[in-house]
TrEMBL record:
GO biological process, one term: regulation of protein targeting to membrane
Domain AsmA: 159-273
UniProt protein name: AsmA domain-containing protein
Pfam families xref list: AsmA
InterPro entries noted in UniProt: AsmA, AsmA-related
GO CC annotations, alphabetized: plasma membrane
Residue ranges that the Swiss-Prot or TrEMBL entry lists as coiled coil: none
Species assigned in the record: marine sediment metagenome
Amino acid sequence: DVSGSITNLQDPILNIIAKIDGNLKDIESITNEMKDIKMKGPVFVCMTVKGKMKNPSFFGEYNVRNAYINGIGLAKPITNFNIKGTIHGDAARIDKCSGNIGRSDFSFNGHISNFKQPVIQINNKSKTIDLDELIPKSEGHKKEKAKPVPIMIQGKTRINTLTGLDMVFKNVNTNFTYEKGIIDIRNCIADAFDGKVKFDFYHNANNPEPYSITTNMTSISSKKILKRFLKFENLEGRLTGVSNFDGRGLSQKEVISNLTASGNLTVKNGAFKNF
């Protein structure tokens, strides 16, 4: 639906309002980079174009409701996706965006710049994030993978409960970047293993091994963390220190076989039990 006027045909001046009421499915293959992405859900856009045809200005609003998106480098699709905001030129404001990835949820606001290679800056709040439903599992056999969508998402997030890889973190606050299948978490602070942890985590879903984790632990349970990573639960006490890990895989078997670690750790009130 298009309405408006064009004046001064020698040097046209536009005053046009365009309304689009469609479906995300109509644009899922709009570029070669998006050909592996599957989307559906109603989308509404109302745009105003004003000014000279040589250099017009664009502004308006957009709204997507209850959408489905799959094929962007995550282990599970995004469902119940809702977003609304405004557009001005080559940038957009996100007033509210929410959805689910499996049992994980997100709700954020922010802004988008450079629509050709989008950069999305957000502030997110989540009740639950399950890493097992975000990070694709590496397959023993080779298979053609969908190309991650060419966008960068960066910002801050607060998570009540972060689970995955047989671990549970509470009250998580972190900075993060997601770009073309690469997850880079920086300055993450959380409650875990009955203590406080601060860590950085880097994971490349396109070439998932090796990963790297840098940790700073304060008075955590020696038994719980050693049981999780090394299947060793005979050391009681409180563990404090800095450590760096590089490895292949995060199951107990893979950790024991492939983990390389360095750092300085102190155990207080330590005691071996049933050893």
